[in-house]
Design a protein that fits this description.
By secondary structure, this protein is of the alpha/beta class. The chain contains 14 helices and 12 strands. It comes from Actinoplanes missouriensis (strain ATCC 14538 / DSM 43046 / CBS 188.64 / JCM 3121 / NBRC 102363 / NCIMB 12654 / NRRL B-3342 / UNCC 431).
């Protein structure tokens, strides 16, 4: 396969691959002495910590890219916000200064407001509907929208059901959120959701949540139990309630500018690796959810069951107010159709 691949490589295109720098970070950099002739080394930016199953899936992606290209494309994963927050990394992709990154789909609404539809409360009835939608017409439409903005969707990562957690008290009903300062993604839907429940929304980048909790700048946040534990947030916010108000959808992206300059065989290999990484992440996430739930309890966190329907009713106006913003995408989700 390696010999066959090299017959298709435009060596001049590879050797002049993107080495532009933004804030000292390059999309592709000079190969090391152990790399095959004509190889490119590139980065994949990630905001979450190295212990996340998403990072494990990204390393799986990197290995598959290397295997499928015979070592001619080598990907290094940079987790923990090392390359900047998700918005900055997405913009670096658009300009070709970064090859790959992973981001919450709702964080891309600056390019098209419709991409925030997955952040609508109870947009998906459960995990299986979320996965089915992302594998079907809804996911294809999201990919088409991203392509219009120079972002190639290699696959999606399931980020679990999102739940409230805080340092003050257990949340059993919307009334228990009143007066709390809750971190949210930088999404108007998420902001309106928190404010509608009587709390105060505090938009922050993902890699700023831990320090904000530690310093008491926010009382809590909302995310999956996997994120909650891998980021060590149970240390500062020991009360988690299973509201399951959203199902997180992240996307693994490539820079269209960078990818279009690669030989066809390399582009095909990268797309194939993205699909394989998607399924690996879904598997890893399911395993981690069980493990991390047990671990959170062992660490002293209080995990409280609630009736999600109570929260759904409290958020009905937010859902109806925003639904029209998402147009054709909302129509592709059974819970919103």
């Amino acid at each position: 396969m390696r010999r066959h691949y090299r017959e298709h490589v435009d060596r001049r295109a590879v050797l002049t691959s993107v080495c532009a720098v933004a804030g000292g970070l390059a999309a592709g950099c000079s190969r090391d002495s152990s790399a095959p002739a004509g190889a490119v080394d590139v980065l994949l930016g990630e905001s979450v910590q190295p212990a996340s199953p998403m990072v494990a899936a990204e390393k799986f992606f990197a290995q598959k890219v290397s295997d499928l290209t015979g070592g001619l494309c080598r990907v290094t994963v940079k987790p923990g916000g090392e390359l900047g927050d998700e918005q900055r990394m997405a913009e670096m992709l658009r300009t070709g200064k970064l090859a790959f990154c992973k981001t919450l789909l709702a964080n891309l609404t600056a390019y098209d407001k419709r991409l925030g539809v997955a952040s609508l409360p109870y947009a998906f009835t459960d995990r299986e509907q979320c996965l089915t939608s992302m594998r079907g017409d809804f996911g294809k439409r999201c990919a088409a929208i991203l392509a219009e903005h120079g972002l190639v969707m290699l696959g999606f990562f399931y980020a679990g059901d999102r739940n409230f957690y805080n340092r003050v008290r257990a949340i059993r009903s919307p009334a228990d959120l009143k007066g709390l300062r809750i971190r949210v993604p930088q999404s108007i839907v998420s902001i309106d959701m928190i404010n509608a429940l009587g709390a105060t929304a505090v938009p922050l980048a993902t890699n700023d949540i831990g320090s904000a909790l530690k310093q008491g700048l926010v009382d809590g946040a909302e995310n999956s139990v996997v994120f909650y534990t891998t980021e060590q947030h149970q240390q500062y916010a020991p009360h988690l309630s299973w509201t399951r108000h959203q199902h997180g959808v992240d996307v693994l992206l490539a820079s269209a500018t960078w990818l279009s300059a690669r030989p066809t065989a390399m582009r095909d290999a990268i797309m194939q690796a993205g699909g394989l990484a998607q399924e690996e992440e879904i598997r890893l996430w399911a395993e981690a959810t069980q493990t991390k739930t047990t671990w959170a309890r062992d660490q002293g966190a209080t995990l409280t069951d609630v009736d999600p329907e109570v929260f759904r009713r409290a958020l009905a106006k937010v859902i109806s107010n925003h639904r029209g913003t998402f147009g054709d995408l909302a129509a592709l989700l059974p819970a919103l159709a």
